[in-house]
């Protein structure tokens, strides 16, 4: 099965939500609301790429997707529905603007204009900082091709514009997804 324009995916782990924590032998549900975007599964396995697609994505890759891809919602009549990406059972059709990075063999690559930055702990300063991470600074973790051409590398300490912290958990780490033009400098 191939789609003319969309990438065919399924949620990693077979679930639409990541809302359980294991303590010993018991799974605890940490959230039961379908509206809470923080708990929606944001990783998808690529089943098939579009017809005539010649980009970097391959079947078997993992995609970091928008929080609404797998979420349920309630319509104006109170009926539970799936979003526009739902096809059938655990199969979803993704448009190119619904994912931000792809992973293969344990390595992540930025897609299109997206990159991912890891927050860094706050630095010693004479100025009081009432938070645990340094504001507007981070370590580049997933770099896209545009930033690579500008000399930005994985591991670089960077500054970014305010209000860019769209949170993801990738390989157990908190990362911020942002556009490449949100990166203001390499430190």
Structure, briefly:
This protein has one helix at 145-149, and strands spanning 7-11, 20-23, 26-29, 43-48, 62-65, 72-74, 80-82, 86-88, 91-94, 99-104, 107-110, 114-121, 133-142, 157-160, 166-170, 173-179, 183-186. The chain is mainly β and 187 residues long.
Commentary on this structure:
- Helices cover 3% and strands 45% of the residues.
- By secondary structure, the chain is mostly beta strands.
- It has 2 domains: 7-108, no CATH class; 113-186, 10 Kd Chaperonin, Protein Cpn10, Chain O (Roll).
- The strands form 4 sheets. Strands 8-9-1-4-5-10-11 form a 7-stranded antiparallel sheet, with no helix packed on it.
- A hairpin with a 2-residue loop joins strand 2 (20-23) and strand 3.
- The termini are far apart.
List the defining traits of the structure above.
187 residues; mainly beta; 10 Kd Chaperonin, Protein Cpn10, Chain O; 17 strands; 45% strand
How many structurally independent domains?
Answer: 2
Query: Within the largest sheet, what's the order of strands?
Result: 8-9-1-4-5-10-11
Order of helices and strands: EEEEEEEEEEEEEHEEEE
Percentage of β-strand residues? 35-45%
Number of strands: 17
Per DSSP, the total helix count is: 1
The separation of the N and C termini measures 47 Å
* Rg, Cα atoms, Å: 18 Å
Oligomer: single chain
Shape descriptor: globular
DSSP helix fraction: under 10%
Outline the biggest β-sheet: 7 strands, antiparallel
Give the low-confidence spans.
none
Counting helices, strands and paired strands, the structural category is mainly beta
Report the mean per-residue pLDDT as an integer.
Answer: 91
